[in-house]
Amino acid sequence: MPTSIPHARRYGAFALLTLAASASFGFPAAKTAPPAARTSVSAEARTAKAFEDARKEGPLALRAFLYRMPKGADLHNHLSGAIYAETWIRDAGEDHLCVDTKTLSFIAPAKATHPSPDCGEGQVDAATVPQNQHLYDALIDAFSMRTFVPRTADSGHDHFFDTFGEFSGTSKKHMGEWLDEVASRAAAQNEQYLELMDTPDFKDAARLAAPLAQSMGGAPDFGRLRQQLLDAGIKDSIPAIRANLDAAEADRRQIEHCGQADEQPACKVKIRYIYQVLRGLPPEVVFAQILLGFETASADPRFVGLNLVQPEDGYLAMRDYRLHMQMLDALHGDYPGVHISLHAGELAPGMVPPDGLRFHIRLAVEQGEAERIGHGVDIMYEDHPYELLKEMAVKHVMVEVNLTSNDVILNIKGDQHPFEIYRKYGVPVALSTDDEGVSRIDLTHEYVRAAVTYPLSYHDFKKMVRTSIEHSFLPGASIWQQSVPETLDKPVEACAGQIGEETPTGPCAELIYRSEKAQQQWELEHRFHIFEASF
User: CA-based angle 427:190:428, to the nearest 5?
Assistant: First the structure.
């Protein structure tokens, strides 16, 4: 392995990239106070004061501050839900889809004709929608939470989840554009890493799973069922999954001019994927998806984990929740290197019977092998909640906190949200967007909401940002010591005294060279160094 000098050259590029990024984020130059005055207070302390000053000025000043603050990773982000409605409308026009003007949804034409689709009665060519402002606005409202007002017949929960059915139907050939949209928005806000949830095509897996339906009762032998699906050729879907992702990422690189003189800042946003399993389907199909997810992640390192999605209060999701955790428990032993994050506790009183609030998070942690929990809103309704909180802290199970979606879907906000309880008990937390396109937000919006709602200091935000990279599913060692409660302010011995330096040397350079996670952590510390030096 090379010595620290080549490593220093390699990672000195981090500093150059960060300095270039600082110009694109519009970071101001460092203030010109006399040197003695500036050295008397640390850069972090000056930044903390600037944060408190922004808080006093109000949400707009907070947004300006937090927009350019390094935000590390967004770890709970559904790709389809992250795309704004305007993009869906444009793509539907390019795909020659029709719009049902009554249901406000995309419809495939009965007969493909060119240059315009043969749309039926009550339908219009999606390509013509921008010419009709009223219909254009109505579709945006139908595809998102914009202008939504709860009504007896349409709750925030129902409207939110219904949007996915309304804008579905566009071709995945646009995935490269979608990746660029999300990455460009992230780059503009000083984010550097995304784990995007996406569901690859699993039609063949579902077909192979059909004969297993009778085996899902009682105590299924998941090892035998796994082998049955492997023998039937479930892995044959993986080459197409990889090829589709290859094409999407190539399109993204082309759109962003990556590697060219006019390369866009979005090129610097690293993206990995969470294999998204639809849990609202029959159990044999869920099992097949989980197995295909484990196999795909084992074959393609771009898939760093898997997650079960769809409304947690749905009939099948509730009925089969324990069964799904048993599936994960049984299969994870064959794929120990594949990470798991689970939607668990995305529930509120009244949505389900009281018994349905008592066990989801615990089962996800203790049986479902979850290293992260998405939402976790009903933690205090679990059996023995304080013991569970302590267990999550000891096991370093992180909670992906989605404040806006918890409000619009569950009507949970402010002190009804367990955000501060998790922090009190040392459970790692990080802010994320969930479905920023449907909610019409970005990650900065979540930071501002947290700052306005809770008594968080700049150091609290900095810790959450570090937590987002620490609990990413990127491979490799961390530059931070592990501790309980988690602090993330003490570097490992190899990097002691070097955090914030421009170039790592010696054993620290060796650690970073070998670890994708450490590379992102080092990049984050450079971004904090530049950001804090501007105050």
Answer: 5
